[in-house]
Amino acid sequence: MIFFDALPEGAVKLEADIMTPHFSPYYDKPNQNKAVEWYDPILIPFLTVAAGQTFCFAFAPRPGYQNDNAHADVRQVSAWLKDALIEIGAGAKTAVGYGRFKRKWK
Hints:
Largest sheet: 2 strands, antiparallel
Protein name: Type III-B CRISPR module RAMP protein Cmr6
Number of helices: 2
Order of helices and strands: EEEHEEEH
Strand content: 15-25%
Shape: elongated
Number of strands: 6
Distance between the termini: 20 Å
InterPro entries: CRISPR-assoc_prot_TM1791
Number of domains: 1
Radius of gyration: 20 Å
Oligomer: single chain
Helix content: 10-25%
Strand order of the largest sheet: 1-6
């Protein structure tokens, strides 16, 4: 299958968020620095896509792909894609809720 870029179904609303790593010296050189409480946190602002945005995902069989089960294969890949977006998410920071999707398809 060929997977195309996911496209927003309208204007995308962005929001600002901030990461605050507290142990930067430890992360930079873990063999030399301990993860201790007296390091100053560093504020790292970044943009996120606001919750509730709708995206369109598309894929297609590779050119020349033909077999007796082609339609079944497309349905199976569609089901896998839907399940993956809901169960696993897409992109970074899915463990804290970014890149999580809800069912809303045609």
